[in-house]
Structures are given as C-alpha cells and as structure tokens.
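Dear V.,

Thank you for sending over the compound details. I've combined the ligand you provided, flavin-adenine dinucleotide, with the protein sequence from our construct and run the structure prediction for the complex. I'm sharing the raw inputs here so there's no ambiguity about protonation or stereochemistry in the SMILES, which I know was a concern on your side last time.
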Amino acid sequence: MKPAPFAYVKAASLDQVFDLLTRHGDEARVLAGGQSLIPTLNLRLSAPAVLIDINGLDALGGIALEDGTLRIGALTRQRTIEQSTEIARHCPLLKLAMPYIAHPAIRNRGTIGGSIALADPAAELPACAVALGAQIEVRGRDGPRTVDATEFFRGLYETDLRPGEVVSGVLVRKPEPGQRSALAEFARRHGDYAMIGLAARARVERATLSDVRLVFFGVGAKPVLARAAGALLEGRAIDRAALRAALAEDLDPSADLQASAATKLHLAGVLTTRIVDQLVGAPQ
Ligand SMILES: Cc1cc2nc3c(=O)[nH]c(=O)nc-3n(C[C@H](O)[C@H](O)[C@H](O)COP(=O)(O)OP(=O)(O)OC[C@H]3O[C@@H](n4cnc5c(N)ncnc54)[C@H](O)[C@@H]3O)c2cc1C
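Below is the predicted structure of the protein with flavin-adenine dinucleotide bound, written out as structure tokens.
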C-alpha cells in the first residue's frame, strides 16, 4: 500500500517547525527517523497533510556532558547511542537497551526523540527514561521547558507534549558512585517489541540494593514504576512470595495477543529476579 498524498517540508530552523505546527495543527506530523511514522502512513493508519522533516536541525542533535548532566539531542540515532563511549560511561542503561530495539537497520534511522515522543507502551526508551529519572526537554514557540519523565508519559501513545511543541532532548544525571542499571525483556523473536520488559537502576553495595527503581514496559498504557516491588528489594534478599504480592499491587497488566494477564505477572517476577542478578553482578 502507498501513503495518501502529503506535502513535505525540510525544516531549515526550529522557528519554521513551530510556524508549520501552528499553521497546520493536527494535520502536520514531525518526521524524525521515520521508523514508526512511515509504516503508519504506508498502512494508511495515519494521513497527515504535511510532513515536517526535522532531520538536519543542529539544535536537536548531539550528545554533551555539562555539570554532571548528559544531554542527548532528540535526533540522536539509536545506533549512535549504542556505539557512543560517553553513553556507555555516563548512561549505561541506554547502551544496554539498544540491542533490544528492532534491528541495526532500524536503529540506524530511529531516534531517541522519536521513541520518546511516540510513547509506545512496549518500547524500551520511555521505560529507561523513567528508570533513570530523566528530564524530557521540550521546545515550542514559548521556549524550552523540561518535564520529569515520570510525568511526561501520560497514557497510551499520550505525552505531556502540547500542540506546537517538539521533544528537543533527554537530560540524564551522571550515575552516582555505586549506581548500576540493568534491562531484561521477553519478546517472541529478538528485535520484536517486548511482551514485557523491565528497566532498572539501583545503588549496589556489597550485593545489597538501595534506591531501587524498577520500571516495567509492555504491561500497561505507559511505563510503570513498580514502587512496592522496588521497596521490597531494598536491603534484603528476594522473598518470592512477597515479591509476587508486591508485583500484583504495582502492575495491572491486560491480556494481549501475546500473553494473558496472569502470564505477564508471572514473567514480571522472573524478570525481577534476573534484574537483581544483573544489578549485583559485575560492576558496569
Ligand atoms: C520492524 C520494527 C521493529 C521495531 N521494534 C522496536 C522495538 O522493539 N522497540 C522500540 O522501542 N521501537 C521499535 N521500533 C520503532 C523504532 O524504534 C522507531 O525508531 C521509534 O519508535 C520512533 O523513532 P523515529 O525517530 O523513527 O520516529 P518517527 O517514526 O519519525 O516518528 C514517530 C512519531 O513521533 C513523532 N516525533 C518524532 N520525533 C519527534 C520529536 N522530536 N518531537 C515531537 N514529535 C516527534 C512523529 O511525528 C511521529 O508521530 C520498531 C520499528 C520497526 C519498523
């Protein structure tokens, strides 16, 4: 199938993007890596009148460390994140996540900003952003603002982005001493969206965890911060019965084409055990 006809504008500046978004409203779509947008056009699930190509806007690119905060520009390709030594050093969770996202050809084009703006509930990057306590940097006519990732994801493919705004970057604090991260997921085939996944960060001292942030994806309309299960892991070994109860309190998965709700809850327990093993394993 071919997409419905649309106009294409290669934006020369952010101001032009804001003008076009204001003028065309819901009839316009921003084009980043195109790895999610173009398939929806081809399948005619979406038929915008105008595509605004933001590739090439320097303000949306680059990886920079300033005052202990890493700013990853929205247009940074997933493959660049995978191969960046700065990301490996200062934000290892993102590096861990990359091989789970589709395949290299898709990661060559797909961007961090596209994934964050799309807010697919089964995607790795939104969950990582919440686990890392990242700030999402957003720009519009009224200037930049930052939104805590925990607040940014609002519901199914729904974010805090206001009309006329774009995601311009993701801000992550450098890890503190002892902080480690881990990611695990179940998918039917490598590269598929996760049936269920877990991104985590914690402080680890002599195999004991504190400040645990467990964020599940593929189990709800948005990334789910599992507070009860995280608290249960603080300072003690896993009590499997208590963990099952805590996960049942944190998660309310719906059945989907891949698994029943009960299977997802069971897999959440398996993933948590694996994540703890990863966290207390070799230092990053
Ligand atoms: C076969 C296949 C398998 C995949 N598997 C996975 C997977 O396992 N895990 C996963 O997470 N992803 C997966 N993806 C999606 C892929 O990671 C996309 O790259 C990502 O979801 C969107 O990024 P993009 O840069 O391609 O965005 P685009 O497709 O260009 O845009 C996606 C949406 O976000 C909007 N948008 C893009 N950038 C911005 C911005 N800066 N500000 C505001 N709005 C913006 C667009 O208007 C559009 O609505 C898969 C894709 C394919 C085709």
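A first observation: Residues 29-37, 39, 74, 101-102, 106, 109-111, 113-115, 117-118, 123-125, 166-167, 193 surround flavin-adenine dinucleotide (CB under 6 Å).

Warm regards,
I. M.
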